[in-house]
Amino acid sequence: MAFVSFSTVFVSVMLFTVSPVAGKTEKTEGDTVEFTPAEFTVSITTMEWTHVDKSSNKIKAIKWDSRDQSLNIPNPRFKKITSIDTKTGKLTIESLTKEHSGQYKFELNGETKGEFSLEVSERLPIPTIERDTGNNPNIVYLKCNYDGSGHKDLLIIWSNSTQELRTMKPEEHDKSFIVEKSNNPDNYYTCSLKSPAGRETSLKAYERDLFKESGLGEGAIAGIIISIIILICGGVGAFFYKTNSVFHDLIHDRFSCLRGNAPAPTETNANVNVPLRNSPSSTQPADGD
Ligand SMILES: *[C@@H]1O[C@H](CO)[C@@H](O)[C@H](O)[C@H]1NC(C)=O
User: Fold this and answer.
1) What is the distance in A from the centroid of ligand 1 to the CA of 193?
2) In the sheet that 70-72 helps form, which strands lie side by side, from edge to edge?
3) In ligand 1, which atom is closest to the CA atom of 186?
4) Residue 224: what pLDDT?
5) pLDDT tens track for 109-151
6) Whose CA is nearest to atom 8 of ligand 1?
7) How many other C-beta atoms are found inside a 10 Å radius of the C-beta of residue 102?
8) Could you say which of 6, 53, 234, 274 would form a disulfide bridge with 102 (CB–CB 3.0 to 4.6 Å)?
9) Cα 188 to averaged position of ligand 1 atoms, centre (Å)
């Protein structure tokens, strides 16, 4: 028991001495931050939060005076988005911008009672997945692309539908994430960007799309094969048409459209096209009339 009380006291003392220089709070633009001062028992006359920005400009963020119950937020940087809990001194700032970065100092009755550090970073970009195929049809290489301007120390996290699979440190960001076909077309992959202040995730890349033949689908391939067959048949046909007089005449008679500019006859008048049918070279027996 004695040991427990001792450690409790020890921890409290540690917390008390550490709290004025508490670690940096990291937020992203648009977030809300709260800073809660250590508990106190003295009665409140005034409570004030001051902000020292990155350029060391010190301004009053918010001040509460219990004597006339007045709340004062003089600076436009904090107007409308800043509030204070008049019992605990807790500071709340909504809709953070990068300008809210810096040090926050809490003063109770004119005495400094706590200091907090805030870093607001730009909202993370949403990454996109780029796919590369190699020689192996069962493997694709994925890259996580993002607009990196203004962001340092981002981690890339690759996940499939069920779990996180790999974390890439900043120096590994141009490496590929290798995906092997699992034959579960509904499995999907995402990449996320992670900073201390937030996380943004790409759209899902489904396995059924990742291993799709790039370019030519089955339909296109069938079309190409049929075209090649037609070309070969046409070529063979043309060859015989030129070299074999029997074939030539057969074709010549069948397809009257091949004869110069003569208009192609319709079904009905083809049958009464007597002069051509009787041409000397014709081997085609005349339809019995
Ligand atoms: C996700 O990856 C893990 C580890 O490789 C694997 O065990 C799991 O089956 C995968 N999930 C799916 C849906 O394929």
Assistant:
1) 21
2) 24-28, 111-121, 102-108, 46-52, 58-65, 70-72
3) 13
4) 62
5) 999 999 999 999 888 899 999 999 988 999 999 999 998 766 7
6) 162
7) 19
8) 53
9) 10
Judge if the beta carbon of residue 182 lies within 6 A of ligand 1.
Answer: yes
Q: Is the CB of 159 under 6 A from ligand 1?
A: no
- DSSP-derived pairing of the beta strands 70-72 and 139-145: unpaired
160 Cβ closer than 6 Å to some ligand 1 atom: yes
Q: Which of 160, 179, 210 to mutate to test the pocket of ligand 1 (most atoms within 8 A of CB)?
A: 160
At 5 the pLDDT is 46
What is the residue type of 289?
Answer: D
Split at pLDDT 50, 70, 90, the class of 56 is very high
Dist. CA 206 → ligand 1 center (Å): 13
Task: Decide which of 110 and 233 is more confident.
Answer: 110
Pocket flag, ligand 1, residue 167 (CB < 6 Å): no
Candidate CATH numbers 2.60.40.10, 1.10.60.30, 3.40.1080.10, 3.30.160.20; the one for domain 24-121: 2.60.40.10
Indicate if the pLDDT at residue 233 is higher than 80. no
- Confidence band, pLDDT 50/70/90 cuts, at residue 196: confident
Smallest CA separation from ligand 1 atom 5, residue: 165
Q: Does the beta carbon of 187 sit less than 6 angstroms from any atom of ligand 1?
A: yes
Please state, in angstroms and rounded to a whole number, the distance separating the CA atoms of residues 73 and 113: 20
The structural domains of the chain, with segments of one domain joined by +, span: 24-121, 128-211
Q: Reply yes or no on whether the pLDDT at 199 is more than 80.
A: yes
Domains 24-121 and 128-211 alike in fold: yes
Q: Which CATH number fits domain 128-211: 3.30.450, 1.10.10, 3.30.230, 2.60.40?
A: 2.60.40
Render pLDDT for 176-186 as a digit per residue (tens, 0 to 9): 999 999 989 89
- C-alpha distances (whole Å) from 38 to each of 20, 87, 114, 281 are 9, 12, 7, 114
